[in-house]
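User: Small ask, check this?
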Amino acid sequence: MAKNRGIADLIRQNPLEAALFGLAIGAGVLTAAMRSSKTLDLNGRVVLLTGGSRGLGLELARHLARHGCRLILVARDELELDRAVAELRAAGAVVQKLACDLTKPEDIDRMTVEALKIFGRVDILINDAGVISVGSIDSVRQSDFRHAMELMFWGPVRTTLALLPHFLSSGDADIVNISSIGGKIAVPHLLPYSSAKFAMTGFSEGLQSELRGRGVHVLTVTPGLMRTGSHVNAEFTGNREGEYRWFALGATLPGISMDVSRAAAQIVAALQRRERELALTGIARAAIQFHGVFPGLTLRMLELANSLLLPAPSRDSTVAKGKELHHKQSRAVQILTGLGSSAAASQNE
């Protein structure tokens, strides 16, 4: 009785605090109810992993293999696939490969048919294939946007739609879409990449809403910068050496970028919990939340970063890969990006 009077006094004396307290409790209960109470057992699950030959995809394959998953790695480069498969098999993984150009619909159709034949089913689809193109809008061509959309939006859409009847029939499947903070906040000098990732995020979140109650669980992953060594194979236009410098430092320095093994472990854990969304790195989470509350201020800050920190615009559309630009950097930059170079070697970049 005294407890009830205390609650009544709180509501009467501090209605705003009581309302906020009630909302917090309700949000906690709703979040707990929305989460699956049962952890997904990955042992024996068949995983189709695009972009699985290097970078985050390869690291995810390593972690999933330790959980007993059977893997089908998909990538365009046959030699990179062979190296990745050889490494995984040497560690005891059950793994097969399928070479596929995800920008070609006919390749995706063939790949998905063959994937279902390998182990008789696919339980988990991870859409991770991507390409990073860095440069000011002055140096970007329409074809850059088209290629980014074909690979990082239409590739996952076509692969998902091809496997969706199988997933719905099984009634127990998972889709993991690797998006990016660039799919939540448009980052200057990464417009083709951000545009494709924005589309990917919208598709993934909408897909989750439609499929959640039908036995297909969708996880949207929003990473910030990770030390995968991706700057080595990223493509740079415009002021190429300057563009490489800021991107390579951001993708390498601790505190700004995240260790790829830790990122993969968190993604696998979120998959096991069948979560809906995962944002990786504290900086990325803070930026997404800040942008949601203060979108105008975020845009102003990005404008300042573009004018004060990023290279001056250039209309030179010549493309150079990071591996071609690294040795043109100062000794200091080469030392500071040492962790990124190590990551590139270990991640088959």
